[in-house]
Amino acid sequence: MSKDAFFDSFNPISAKEWEEKIKIDLKGADYNETLIWESPEGISVQPFYHADNAINISKLEKSSSAWYICQTINVEDDNGANTKAKEAIEKGAESLRFIIISEKINVEVLLKGINDKKVQIYFEFQCFSKILWESITDFAANSKGDIHLCIDPIGHFGKTGNWFNSINKDLEVNTTINTISVDVSVYQNAGANMVQQLAFALSHANEYLNVFSNKHNIEKVHFNVSVGTNYFFEIAKLRALRLLWKVLSSAYDIEADCCIIAVPTKRNKTLYDYNTNMLRTTTECMSAVLGGANVISNMPYDAIYKEENEFGTRISLNQLLLLKNESYFDKVNNAADGAYYIEGITQQLAEKALELFKSIEKKGGFIKQLEQGGIQKEIAASALKEQAYFNKGEKVLVGTNKYINEIDKMSDAIELHPFTKANSSETTVEPLLGRRLSESLELERLSNE
């Protein structure tokens, strides 16, 4: 008997029949109250998903097997960063993400012996000067390497509360290159829910589109996205982001490619029982792969409290190597395609985000809402809601608010300040500061050591 004939011998069961069977098994318990739960985004999650209720299935246009292992390097010293980059490539990195935090960088020294290798190179800027920008853009223009310039003055404005120079000068810089870069991680780490992250990403990108006089020159948009541990929702979030970008780019009649650079979130990382951070980042990177991220850069398990070190960096890279080379996460194309649960969440996230995006645009756009404090208020409300769940134990971080190791001591191990720093400098707008959920509990435990 053929496989098809074997399955033909079974009668299909409808969604209604499944639901009736579940209600019988509940023995009088309320179906909705017992089995349906609501996400922070207001999405009702059903106990099962069926073809009868399936909405339009949206397959990824990009193969989720084609992703690059990336090493992020903070660049203060070009020689030191060059050495770290070469070591990362030797250990398996396929892409390099340089975070420029010093204006005194010689790009030729930084990329010596690297530019001729077959690795992707991304530049992101936490500082900006005309001389630095011109030197890097000139080098990229004359290079045969795969170099991407990711400058996001709006993201910098939201994160720090100030422009690099001024709104006009900063936005003008973007028109000198043919890419758009949007740092969505700013919103996630500050406490935005997934609908907000997607809507803000879209509105953020739209501000850049409004700047370009010839939008058809735009070849690519980079979204830098933080991924949390709500496994299936995070897969859906990345898929929804591609759908939303397709909607926005279609409205402008442009065909700019969408590149998603994924990193684990800092928001759920903990100081105590810090080894659990490895489990968190592993599932977050898995979500990024299955969600269709192009580039994935992992976070060391001890990054929130310890200076960069060889062991932590090596472990974070090994996690990605294991996912790609031993777990075969580069062998199956778009494994999430056709999963009714993920498709349902994807569609609902996209619809709710599009609605919020339209609301932001009606109020004058993303920059205006940042200037008026509207974005900050929405994120603060979401962050408080999530914090309340954590404080009540409804959102669990193992080792911190559940299954606590009381004898675990950390005061002598801290090398970096792991808590949110109050902004003492003058800012144009209220900055979107990243804050971890466990900070208050950790401060209390440290004071009692």
Walk me through this protein's architecture.
The protein is of the alpha/beta class. The chain is globular and about 70 Å long. Helix 11 crosses helix 14. 45% of the residues lie in helices and 12% in strands. The chain has an 8-stranded parallel β-sheet. Strands 1-2 form a two-stranded antiparallel sheet.
Report, as a whole number of angstroms, the end-to-end distance.
69 Å
Strand content: 5-15%
Can you summarize the main beta sheet? 8 strands, parallel
Estimate the global geometry from the Cα principal axes: globular
Summarize the structure.
The protein is an alpha/beta fold and 449 residues long. It has 17 helices and ten strands.
Question: Descriptors for this entry?
Answer:
449 residues, alpha/beta, eight-stranded parallel beta sheet, two-stranded antiparallel sheet, 17 helices
Secondary structure layout plus pairing:
Blueprint: H1 3-8, H2 15-25, H3 31-35, E1 37-38, E2 44-45, E3 68-75, H4 78-90, E4 95-100, H5 107-110, E5 120-125, H6 130-142, E6 146-150, H7 153-160, H8 167-174, E7 179-183, H9 185-190, H10 194-211, E8 220-227, H11 231-251, E9 257-264, H12 276-291, E10 295-297, H13 310-326, H14 340-362, H15 366-372, H16 374-391, H17 439-447
Parallel strand pairs: 3-4, 3-10, 4-5, 5-6, 7-8, 8-9, 9-10
Antiparallel strand pairs: 1-2
